[in-house]
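RETRY 2/3 - previous attempt timed out on the joint model. Re-submitting the same 840-residue input unchanged.
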Amino acid sequence: MLEILPQLLVNALITGSIYALASSGLALTYGVLRILNFAHGHVMMVGAYTFFFFTVERSLPIAESSILASLAIAVLGVLVLAVFILPFSRGNSLLPLVTTIALGSILEALVSMWFGVSVRSLPLPGAGDSLEFAGVFITPLQVGIILSALVIFAVLGFVVHSSPLGRSVRALAEHPQAAQGLGVSRTKVLLGVFTTSMLLAAYAGVLVGYETNLQPTMGGSYSLKAFAAMILGGLGNMWGTIVGALILGLLENLSIGLDFGGYSLPAGYKDAFAYVIILCALLFRPQGLFGTGERRA
Amino acid sequence: MLSISGLEVSFQGSPVLNGLSLSVVAGETVGIIGPNGSGKTTLFNCISGFVTQRGGTIALRGEEIQDLQPNARALRGLGRVFQNFGVFRNMTVLENLLLALESRSDQMLSILPWSSGRAQQKEQALALLREVRLEEKASLKASSLSGGQMRLLEIIRTVAAGAEVFLLDEPTAGVSPRMKDDVTGIIRRLQELGKTVMIIEHDITFIERFCTRIVVVNEGRIVLDGTPEQVRSDEQLKEIYFGRA
Amino acid sequence: MSDISGIIFSEYTIHLAILVGLYAILAQSLNLTFGLGQLFNLAHVASYAIGAYTTALLSTEAQWQFVPCVAASILLSGAFSVFLGTIALRLTNDYFAIGTLAFGAVVSSLLINWRSVTHGVLGIPGIPRPEILGLDMYQNSNFLALLLVFVVAVQALYFAISRGPFGRSLRALAEYDQAAAALGINTRLVRNVAFLLSSAAAGLAGSFFAYYLNYIDPTSFAFGEMIFLMTIVVVGRPGSFFGVLLSTAFLVLLPEPLRFLNLDSATLGPMRQLLYSLILFAVVWWKRRSIFPEQREV
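RETRY 2/3 succeeded.
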């Protein structure tokens, strides 16, 4: 059993990277808006399908497709923020949860009608060939996933911690009134944070499309996985969420890879780990591993 | 009647109540004053059972209640009127009272809308409403009442629930000056009925009308305890509110 | 004259009536927790599924009769809600929603993956119609009559609940939990009982669903179904008995004209989903100030 452990760990890193990219945006949004966006996973799905539309259906080169898809997602992000989130951000926190649930369902229905419900995938010739390092198999695509995640988080980290923009974001997250009193424009920061969050989600969706496949119904489970990562790592805590995402990736891969005295968990249960994590976290440590305990579940 | 000893409460590490002790005799009316943040509402929340204490005891008629659930304390005669209005606005005035009467007679799980005691309860409820001149409003939604009327409703509802000890948290907040007399009236009625009343207030002239004893809370403990005249003239009080000269 | 009666009593109308009846039970039971109690239970469909699968399995593999099957469905769904309640009822507001969402997702996962029990995505076929007093329940008009007995009973029960002391306690604690407790109401118990009543009825609906379709699989219990139920309650106004009853009929019947547009079946489903999702959002937007009142606390 121990022989496959290095492979499982590498797989965990790959899955974890995708989840980290998917959920870091959610954490950023929660930090400034205090809203759980249930449609986050659905935006991942839409991002992937948009990219699919440009690369596969319109056969455009990757660079062009990326730019067009990013623009489309950015526009979608502004729309979502203005219509589905901001009007409901004051008052009972159940409101934005319901509207984002509705949004997710709307996106899923639209994509199903346009692209059909059958499984699609994004092809990447050659990048799917396995390479071998020290007994571990990995594809160039998977290496790309891990490296791009590292680069993106390094950039994000730099922006959030060392730039004036990052300071504005952190100030607004911690104390909205004080920040606005100092001249921070809430609208601009929200727009910026939310668009970044959407783009990160879309990118993660594209990676899922390359690494596995796409279905319009995948949004819901990815939303829950992002929630799990964030609840585990601490609400609104970006780095905590990234760690949470990696832990989730680890748990999923270990669960199906290892066998416990002859019994191995059917692969279909992989997704259920996220759900169980959510429940355990909410019950035993609602502020997450790294949270400051400011919010009681 | 109510005996509090060495109550200690802290929120996120910082202490709010520091070994507070207080004894209230049956039928007494005690006013509780103190600067903002001194722990007055926390004291009430602790007695009611919404906040757990780190240490100390609370005894009602000699029985220790500090480990009981809030509803268990209520059933033993502890009543509470909330600063932010505990009246249920989405129900009618009558329903607010029926709720109190039903919980007292152990009917809150009753699924059926009719029962043997129902007509009686309605009569009881209307009689209580008459006491505060809200009888005509019985079938109106509680949200249509003014602040003062809501206060009266909340207090009379607490009577309906069978309370013997009344914790009134800023009963004149949100009440027009005209209605303050009505609130005074109902509190005097509580005194006539022999109830034990504790009132948190900022308006000293208001509570002087019926309190024979005033307690000053500062930084989580009681610093003064005496008659209104004693408290008014005390040098410490001025320091507490206005700082040292 | 016979033309009109032909339309009224056609198989299609009877089918629609059966659907409305089933959803009337589901929606009204959700209305108790979601509407009256402001308990955002997103695992309601899980109770529905448990009821359906219980009846399906007991009637096909153990050959149980109608009454024991329905009773078992109600009991198991009820037991599920007690389990869910002890875990989820400690959580507040949106965390309760997420918690029940996760719970529902676990149940969904079990339906698909616990193949030895649920047969996974293959589902359970061959569920026989109930045998009642020698009547042929395969005649849908007879089945409808049987269902209506239960629908009326459940609606009457819920009407009584909402108007009685229990309903009052529930509404009180939904608005200001601590004020309700300060009046002597055991808020935890009231919530648990509301949960139980709601879940048991959903189990009943599930049982009848299994009997009607004669075949069930996990797709009927996906999250989309939960969103549909939520839409019915939101549109009918959460907590309103008659409102939810009317919106049930409205939303079940509304997408039916789409059937006549000759769309292929793959588009029909998503189109219906789009329709009710848009309606959900529209109503929430329109009623945003009043629909989920802020719950007060000390």
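Chain B is about 35% helix and 25% strand. Closing ticket.
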